[in-house]
Amino acid sequence: YVNKGNLTEIEHVIATVERIHRNRRIGVLVVDDSTSARAYLRTLLGRYGYRTLEARDGQEALDLLASGTGPIHLVLCDQHMPGMDGITLISRIRRHFSRTELCIIGMSNHGSGILSARQLKAGANDFITRPFLEEEFFVRVNQNVALLELLQEMRENANRDPLTRLYNRRYLADAGETVYQAARREGRGLAVILLDLDHFKQINDRFGHSGGDKVLVNVADCLMARARRSDILVRYGGEEFCLLAQDVDEKGALGLAEALREAVGGLELRLDGEPLALTTSVGVNTHPGTCLEAMLEAADEALYRAKTSGRNRVVQ
Ligand code: GH3
Ligand code: MG
Ligand code: MG
Ligand code: MG
Q1: Which of 9, 77, 175, 195 could connect to 241 by a Cys-Cys bridge, CB 3.0–4.6 Å?
Q2: First-to-last CA distance in the chain?
């Protein structure tokens, strides 16, 4: 028999073990010119399971961050180092990595309080004064990592549609514009494929809104299975989906659109035990125009023509 007190203790141990296991995903870069200081910090971080990387100076840290050897979530940054000091390094890191991408804790020595303020101004999220108590070190590291994870989770949720878990229109406007500019600059082909399910209202009328929702999830999964890694697939509206495909010409885009139309039409859907036939109309645009928004408008006009000319077809 285990009394309640022991159970809480066991639960606490399990929670800690789980936390340590999850921390293996978290990369911490320790930047310090002192070998013994790096070894000490590595030992501390190891106790909480963090994946630790080390750099001896600012340039090595910047090279590591640029090389993308696994994601780095937290940088612990010494102030006094040969070559580049901590404040300079922090401001250079912040030119490339926002506060939603990584957090920085500056480390300065006792008696140099002004440096902490300067580290914060340069872009550090927090600072710690050495020598420190281990307890303070862990509180600052764990809290900053937890806050970063929360920020990333919130950003992810803001970019996703809760029903289908596809990206949403907001994400298309942000990430799609970057993709559009890069494609224009590099002279690569880009295609906007807009899909609108045919007579979707009838599905809601027959099977209720929750029945309609199930169909939308099935369609989203079906489209997702056919999208490439470089494609941006979003739920564009209620029963409208948009695929932004990179490196495709007109012929490729029309082929892809046709494949998507056939895939949706071929879905074997059942609601309340009844088989359900579903079709979709598709509008395609491969003309770059002046901006992504203009490409979307042209695809929408093509989609309108697909609807008025009989539905269940691809129109350019
Ligand atoms: P068509 O596009 O072929 O002209 O006909 P439609 O019946 O699909 O017409 P329309 O695009 O105007 O209507 C879309 C319908 O999709 C209206 C709305 O009730 C339904 N809808 C939009 N969002 C959702 C949703 O999240 N869940 C469900 N179940 N239905 C939705
Ligand atoms: Mg130093
Ligand atoms: Mg619609
Ligand atoms: Mg529709």
Answers
A1: 195
A2: 72
Distance from C-alpha of 197 to C-alpha of 264, rounded to nearest angstrom = 9
The one catalytic residue among 18, 60, 153, 239: 239
Q: Is 123 in the pocket of ligand 1 (CB under 6 A)?
A: no
Q: Candidates 196, 201, 279: which one to mutate for ligand 1, based on the most atoms within 8 Å of Cβ? A: 201
pLDDT at residue 1 is higher than 50: no
Q: How far apart are CA 124 and CA 162, in angstroms?
A: 33
Q: β-pairing, 167-168 with 103-109?
A: unpaired
DSSP string, 21-44: HHGGG-EEEEE-S-HHHHHHHHHH
Pair of tokens at residue 250: 């007109």
Q: Which two tokens stand for residue 107?
A: 């480390």
Structure confidence by residue, pLDDT tens digits, 176-218: 999 999 999 999 999 999 999 999 999 999 999 999 999 999 9
Quickly list H helices, the chain: 4-22, 35-47, 58-67, 86-96, 113-122, 134-158, 169-186, 200-226, 250-265, 292-308
Between the alpha carbon of residue 134 and those of residues 34, 130, 131, 223, the distances in Å are: 19, 11, 9, 50
d(CA 25, CA 131): 28
Alpha-carbon distance of 97 to 124, in angstroms, equals 11
> What values do phi and psi take at 198, rounded to 5?
-85, 135
pLDDT in tens, 104-128: 999 988 777 789 999 999 999 999 9
Question: Using a 6 Å cutoff on CB, does residue 24 contact ligand 1?
Answer: no
Q: Which residues contact 276 (CB under 8 A, 6 or more apart)?
A: 203, 207, 215, 269, 270
Task: To the nearest 10°, report the CA torsion of 92, 179, 71, 166.
Answer: 140
Burial of 252 (0-12, 13-18, 19+ CB in 10 A): middle
Residue minimizing CA distance to atom 6 of ligand 1: 199
Q: What is the pLDDT of residues 86-104, one digit of tens each?
A: 999 999 999 999 999 999 9
Average model confidence (pLDDT) across the chain: 94
